[in-house]
Design brief:
11% strand, 124 residues, mainly alpha, 5 helices, 61% helix
Length: 124
């Protein structure tokens, strides 16, 4: 597997943003409808400033966009960003499946390993 190091920082920001339950909830809420930051803040037991910070993390990760509408800032989830998270997970899954498959082949080819040894895996 070839690792695109230029995308590592983007993927890191994406998963850092999604690692927090409040931010995941904000993404879910903003998929259904554009919500103002003040409306989002009503839903959480934290300050308006704390919700603004969560939204800023999501925005830096590209998961949401903000658009000013009068005095309010409306937050909307970017569906393409969710797709990028899915692609990153697919790439990780593919890499690990390849490693597991290679280990299984190596173990199957090992002439010193006895397939039906009942003591294998137990302490001798």
């Amino acid at each position: 597997m070839v690792v695109d190091e230029s995308g590592d920082e983007t993927v890191d920001r994406l998963f850092h943003a999604l690692a927090d339950a409040t931010r995941r909830d904000i993404v879910r809420r903003c998929v259904r409808a554009e919500l103002s930051v003040s409306r989002l803040a009503e839903a959480y037991p934290m300050s308006f400033a704390a919700v603004q910070k969560h939204v800023a993390v999501l925005e830096r990760a590209g998961l949401v966009t903000k658009q000013r509408s009068g005095r309010e800032q409306l937050v909307r989830t970017d569906p393409d960003a969710v797709g990028r998270a899915h692609q990153a997970l697919d790439a990780l899954e593919s890499a690990w499946r390849g490693r597991v498959d290679r280990m299984a082949r190596l173990l199957a080819e090992d002439p010193g390993r006895e397939e039906n040894d009942p003591t294998e895996g137990s302490e001798r």
